[in-house]
Amino acid sequence: xxxxxxxxxxxxxxxxxxxxxxxxxxxxxxxxxxxxxxxxxxxxxxxxxxxxxxxxxxxxxxxxxxxxxxxxxxxxxxxxxxxxxxxxxxxxxxxxxxxxxxxxxxxxxxxxxxxxxxxxxxxxxxxxxxxxxxxxxxxxxxxxxxxxxxxxxxxxxxxxxxxxxxxxxxxxxxxxxxxxxxxxxxxxxxxxxxxxxxxxxxxxxxxxxxxxxxxxxxxxxxxxxxxxxxxxxxxxxxxxxxxxxxxxxxxxxxxxxxxxxxxxxxxxxxxxxxxxxxxxxxxxxxxxxxxxxxxxxxxxxxxxxxxxxxxxxxxxxxxxxxxxxxxxxxxxxxxxxxxxxxxxxxxxxxxxxxxxxxxxxxxxxxxxxxxxxxxxxxxxxxxxxxxxxxxxxxxxxxxxxxxxxxxxxxxxxxxxxxxxxxxxxxxxxxxxxxxxxxxxxxxxxxxxxxxxxxxxxxxxxxxxxxxxxxxxxxxxxxxxxxxxxxxxxxxxxxxxxxxxxxxxxxxxxxxxxxxxxxxxxxxxxxxxxxxxxxxxxxxxxxxxxxxxxxxxxxxxxxxxxxxxxxxxxxxxxxxxxxxxxxxxxxxxxxxxxxxxxxxxxxxxxxxxxxxxxxxxxxxxxxxxxxxxxxxxxxxxxxxxxxxxxxxxxxxxxxxxxxxxxxxxxxxxxxxxxxxxxxxxxxxxxxxxxxxxxxxxxxxxxxxxxxxxxxxxxxxxxxxxxxxxxxxxxxxxxxxxxxxxxxxxxxxxxxxxxxxxxxxxxxxxxxxxxxxxxxxxxxxxxxxxxxxxxxxxxxxxxxxxxxxxxxxxxxxxxxxxxxxxxxxxxxxxxxxxxxxxxxxxxxxxxxxxxxxxxxxxxxxxxxxxxxxxxxxxxxxxxxxxxxxxxxxxxxxxxxxxxxxxxxxxxxxxxxxxxxxxxxxxxxxxxxxxxxxxxxxxxxxxxxxxxxxxxxxxxxxxxxxxxxxxxxxxxxxxxxxxxxxxxxxxxxxxxxxxxxxxxxxxxxxxxxxxxxxxxxxxxxxxx
Amino acid sequence: xxxxxxxxxxxxxxxxxxxxxxxxxxxxxxxxxxxxxxxxxxxxxxxxxxxxxxxxxxxxxxxxxxxxxxxxxxxxxxxxxxxxxxxxxxxxxxxxxxxxxxxxxxxxxxxxxxxxxxxxxxxxxxxxxxxxxxxxxxxxxxxxxxxxxxxxxxxxxxxxxxxxxxxxxxxxxxxxxxxxxxxxxxxxxxxxxxxxxxxxxxxxxxxxxxxxxxxxxxxxxxxxxxxxxxxxxxxxxxxxxxxxxxxxxxxxxxxxxxxxxxxxxxxxxxxxxxxxxxxxxxxxxxxxxxxxxxxxxxxxxxxxxxxxxxxxxxxxxxxxxxxxxxxxxxxxxxxxxxxxxxxxxxxxxxxxxxxxxxxxxxxxxxxxxxxxxxxxxxxxxxxxxxxxxxxxxxxxxxxxxxxxxxxxxxxxxxxxxxxxxxxxxxxxxxxxxxxxxxxxxxxxxxxxxxxxxxxxxxxxxxxxxxxxxxxxxxxxxxxxxxxxxxxxxxxxxxxxxxxxxxxxxxxxxxxxxxxxxxxxxxxxxxxxxxxxxxxxxxxxxxxxxxxxxxxxxxxxxxxxxxxxxxxxxxxxxxxxxxxxxxxxxxxxxxxxxxxxxxxxxxxxxxxxxxxxxxxxxxxxxxxxxxxxxxxxxxxxxxxxxxxxxxxxxxxxxxxxxxxxxxxxxxxxxxxxxxxxxxxxxxxxxxxxxxxxxxxxxxxxxxxxxxxxxxxxxxxxxxxxxxxxxxxxxxxxxxxxxxxxxxxxxxxxxxxxxxxxxxxxxxxxxxxxxxxxxxxxxxxxxxxxxxxxxxxxxxxxxxxxxxxxxxxxxxxxxxxxxxxxxxxxxxxxxxxxxxxxxxxxxxxxxxxxxxxxxxxxxxxxxxxxxxxxxxxxxxxxxxxxxxxxxxxxxxxxxxxxxxxxxxxxxxxxxxxxxxxxxxxxxxxxxxxxxxxxxxxxxxxxxxxxxxxxxxxxxxxxxxxxxxxxxxxxxxxxxxxxxxxxxxxxxxxxxxxxxxxxxxxxxxxxxxxxxxxxxxxxxxxxx
Lengths: 1021, 1021
Fold this sequence. Notes:
2 copies of one chain form a homodimer.
Chain A: H1 13-35, H2 45-56, H3 58-70, H4 77-88, H5 97-102, H6 111-131, H7 137-149, E1 153-158, H8 166-187, H9 194-197, E2 198-199, E3 202-203, E4 207-211, H10 225-246, E5 248-252, H11 260-271, E6 282-287, H12 293-307, E7 311-316, H13 321-330, H14 341-357, E8 362-367, H15 371-383, E9 392-396, H16 401-409, E10 414-420, H17 427-438, H18 443-449, H19 454-457, H20 461-464, H21 499-515, E11 518-520, E12 522-524, E13 527-529, E14 534-539, E15 542-551, H22 555-574, H23 577-593, H24 595-606, H25 610-636, E16 639-640, E17 646-654, E18 657-661, H26 669-680, E19 684-688, H27 694-707, E20 714-716, H28 721-730, E21 736-740, H29 743-754, E22 765-769, E23 774-778, H30 784-796, E24 806-812, H31 813-828, H32 848-864, E25 866-870, E26 886-889, H33 896-899, E27 906-912, H34 915-923, E28 927-928, E29 930-934, H35 938-947, E30 952-955, E31 972-973, E32 991-999
Parallel strand pairs in A: 1-4, 1-10, 4-5, 5-6, 6-7, 7-8, 8-9, 9-10, 11-15, 18-19, 18-21, 19-20, 21-22, 23-24, 23-29, 24-27, 26-27, 29-30
Antiparallel strand pairs in A: 2-3, 12-13, 14-15, 16-17, 17-32, 25-26, 28-31
Helix pairs in contact in A: 1-15, 1-16, 2-3, 3-4, 4-6, 8-10, 10-11, 14-15, 21-24, 22-28, 23-25, 23-27, 24-25, 25-26, 30-31
């Protein structure tokens, strides 16, 4: 029985009576609320206009809310006016006449423009005012005091900025401390109001604050619970001690789902500490919209019982439904929340009963604006014989005020949740409230705006199960190609927030270590070939540790491998495409099954952290499944042009032998992309891995063989680039050279592949991915915190050793200094350390040569630019090829630091006069791989979409981590010469199209010849 | 009034009475027919089985009829058994149990297999027997005599093979003559039967034959009416004279629509000759299924009145409906026939009235098995006061026999159309009859098989307008990409069967000649650039005639042009794709408007005949419209991967500057393909045309400029390949080199393009179309006539100077000698002459150097192989670069003749042991462009689809003339390195894909950012 306790058996007489009572109480709440003075319904002109517009038009709502979200970061009133126009200059909004007026100024910086800007800003202030109870502690306390005059309790909540540095965390702690001090001091003078200040066990703290743990730690990373306990604990203990001393109640808020376990674990661990173990004036939150909320509460209750001192538990439904569902669907993880509104409501009622049944162990608080939920609380409490002193109700400031009055009139203890802080910084909070008020699922809108029949609103959610908006799903529309047959779903990454997964990873690394030194002989025709010479792979974090050693092949071996691949062609190419697809899908499954093991080798061989290594496995899985799906669609749904009298079909043949010369930065996923495309199309493959990542490549080759790729179709040929690689590129028996690596090698391969050599009966294709010098533009209207986070992740993850990594930041003048200041502070927080630790962000670079090359760039930078940030050498592990992450400003656009690929943890910041200049700087490069833009200006975003010349442009997000199918990947200029990996055109490069025309008229006899089977690919070699 | 004469006013009292009488007569016909002896309904077991199967299953019908069509060409009984199994081994037919039995033998060559083969062959014989009245003149005359015993007249029709040589035509004339002689001799002894032998004006010839004019001329080409008059006249006159002398009636049959005007014109011209002008015993046919049949009849009547002597006119509905509609839809020409059955029936009735009203001028004959049509003839005749002696009814042997008895009983003069000849050669005729009998529109099936209500069948077709099967349409299903938005239709070629069009072409050539010498200066940025040096284009048919002269550019000009193209990029690339598409469509319209003028220049400059030149213009138009449609679809429906929280779109940017280095064999269409792809994608273009076809290229460039391509986006740079061409290929400012031409130049361009040069900030792409050595395999079960025709057209049109031309024929051993014999005879018929004449098939080669190079191959061939055919030097024009077409047999597979591209009117025939060997020979080439297979073996066709390694495989049709969109074109191996021109992937080579990802979550605020406008392509250079 899903969360139902023994007392509350559905259908029982008691339950029926409680339901009846619930209806009565609900009707009373409605009636009292409607009887409340009408003045309280009044809203400001702007707010009413806004709600009117946005209820009518989804697009309008999106654009207006987006505008408001960006408002805090806009400069002067002229900027506000410009943004207003940009957000409203949308073809879907043209028909709204009133908007035309609002944006009818000629020049946003002119007098009229600026006065519109000022008016809009004021309007937003006024709107914020209705939900935010003050912009500083003093105002908030005064608001709280006014509430108490109306017999309402309060809890104060600080709206802060994102915590991305130790300084911000310290600042947040200071604000909390100040609040505790001043509240504690003020509360002493407040008269006790029995309705709200007396609990079951006597007087309760009159002062009450809510704290967000994430505000107290710039890392707050679920993969690192010990670190979080250490850092947050250090900042929180003084606050708790002071609160206890001053008699201030502290509520620990619950935030996004990904923080839930971290928060509960932290809370329970800390409150078990001797100093706090007997302190009852602290609370925590249970979110009923979570699918396992029942379990959360159960776990909490059992902990409270063990602890022996009561705490308060606040039951909410949850405030992040949109982003939780969105995130889960985006990343193919299970949706953690109930997807239908009634499920949350029903869960809320189940937990209500459990909490009230345990009112001797916890002090239950119920936060809701839903009359049914509130009435249900009151009815169950009555049923259980509890009094209003045994629990409290909670509501948000600025919402549902008549209902508050009704609740107070009915003698309940009501606490108001009072956010306060910088009004504009709280814009996100404001929007969440506005969204809630305009949502069709909103109880407030239904219950008061619409005045719908009470009884419908008061129905048991579990029984009524009203229809609600559908949850988001992954659905592609309006695509260039018809995806009817593309059965592909991205694999999901492993969640290292889970202790179980972290444990598996640790075990896998230990197991891999136990199998060292891994030997990787040359493999031709499925047979191991001894070459007599070996190349060793060292763990870059522990150079003394030999991870594996690969046989060093010679050009003679290369000739043997190419000849073997040519012999392997007829068999592999003539298998049905569906059979090849099955083999690749099987490889995808094997990768999935063995993902910890394979990721462990990546950690050890190239120094990725577990998340990065795991994400690479995900991408390799995706390549297997994607190319399987593509080749099947190509084969099963070829392009037909059957005209009367003639059947015409376009089929795709393989090209022949494909040499895959792969890099060490993505040694499995890049190889997986190239090899699965080649194999899917029916080509045979010779793999020449980077000598620095031979084990990773050998692992993938082994998986493909295990999945059913014949030894004759896939050959493993570790060797030197200068000899074996160059020989393959120039080999007359090779049809395609797929390469990813440095620009200079790519250029050499291009030149070699262009030459048709004696006995070469084809033009060779080169599929090239080369260097990069990727830039992120930071516009002057951004949320700097967001930009800083994205830039650091793009630039420094895996020590900047990704071709997609951010290497340049171009900050607009107005924001440059503020951005740099925060960037430097936030960079301090980055964890440099052992790659084996999930908490590590920056590990070693690949080898000592790389370290020295990077050091040269750094030395140049010290001479020519300004060091904005450099991590102290004391924070680097002593062993391993570590480079201290460094950020330069005042970097001259013409300098090597601004133009050349560094491939290490080095970031150059350039200053741009304006957006035009920023684009020019970004495009002034011989490379064009990835690029990023952080901006809240629709016009600038639109312009970047057209003019930012890169293969992959990312807007308002990190610029690394392209996903197969979702973000086809590759560069222009000297970054690459082929189509996009993980996209629909990539496979075509490994195919030769063929047109087959059959005259179907035979002596005047018509009728399609449509054959029973369709050829899809054959041996074309 | 649609063909209605004054007497027959619809709705008049007379008409109503006639309708009534028509019903009465129709009912009488039905009743008498049903009363006829039942034995006459009996069909053979095989035929009944066949009709049963085929009515139930369309696929079965197709396969069985296809099998029967191929039957005459199969070798022994084992071959019959093998084919039977292949045709029935079709997944759609697996459920037919009875078929499993028929094909259940283990080995087609085993005892059981061969006996099944023999049985099937006998069954086909028996079926043919029911429609074909004998296999020789003697049998046919005996059949005719038996008919006369039943009071039925006859006309004898010879089923012959296709006439593809003078020898066949002579043979056909001889058969006709023998028939006339023997019929004439026999008829003398026949007693006169008044019902069938007495006409209005007295006794009529008892002997009657039908002649097909196409049988008397291997050319019979509508573009050459004078030649047809000369050749057919020469063969026909002796027959007519002899027939007249012996009192034999001669009916001239009407065949396909494309021969209609040719036949009428010939007939009227010949019958106006003094010797025949007063001869009444000759007839011709009007086909009521033609949309302008009314006009045909009117024209004929007016001619008969002018001539002054009556003729017979036979009204039929028409026998080629399927192939006429199919052909028209295939080639986008107007459908010449009524598309609904009732329209033909109504037209038949209109013409019936007109013919009967003119029974004083012509002798009307009405051929039909439709009771309504026949009754209508009788009723109108009654209304007009005519007697059965004033007209005759006609029916086919072997069909509707009870109806024949009824007609005879009712006193009508009935003539039976009696085909005779080799039973198996007549298989096509047999199938046409079977199709007719199994068609749902068939009156015989409805009227007798179904015994449907008489009155429904006897309704006035003009009023009842019953639903009939839909005519064929051009409709593509089941395509790889979604073609929802691809608005493209192939343009149609000009019909040179029309005297008007031939006249326009002659005028256009004269006008072009008047504008010689055409000057083509270099054009950079839209301005003419003088270079001081000129390259002349000479008319290859008249080397003294200078067609044009182009300024010879230097590498300095090339640098200027590339720089100008780079400057032109921002403007052109940033125009909306739809705007670029409009420009290209406008170019297509201009080409259409000026097609005669532009084709004239091709005739003069490269020596194409008008049809070939016109087809090239068609292809150029298609490229304009196709790339316009593709870029619009790419821009308007980009591939989206919008996931919750993130919008992802894949757009296509241009690459930059594209150099188009074009050939002289398709100087307009190849350039159109390359340049419109490049321009559509937003690239700018530098055109380096072949120095042998500078005028043609200049014409296309001028059209593109006139259509709106800016001078800055398209530059014309005539010059040498070794200097200017090579310089462009290596130029660091060029992003794409598109080339079509020889293998050696393609290899040089490939090598040059592979090198990334100093200051080159990109990898260059090479889109290459190079040489070919195309083969056609002739299987041993083919209709040799069909294969011969296809081979000759593929090998010798435009003197073999197409990269797609057939250069090798690989004939299977069993058919080799017979094929060669016919090939040699048919080759004699090819017209070598002035390219300006539409009748010319083979013109000059491009220049004297080409002539000499070809002569070397021929000289080698004379030494190493056997000359099967060589055209007499006396048939070549004295002036011009002519090469006498030549065919070699006994060509060794390893010889240069079998391996190297000749590019002239030279064909090598190789002998293959079996199909396996034929495929091996075909694939044994460094090239892989086009290939052909003539076969009736489903298994061999299927195998070729998988194993014949070419870019374009053509089955049972010529291997030249690929159509844009329908047959994407291009080769593998050393024939080319790119994707298929005229296909969906070609454009991608001129694009760089770009992925744009926008995070649409803003502080938890969800909602797609879907912008108002979508970027599609920007300046990526």
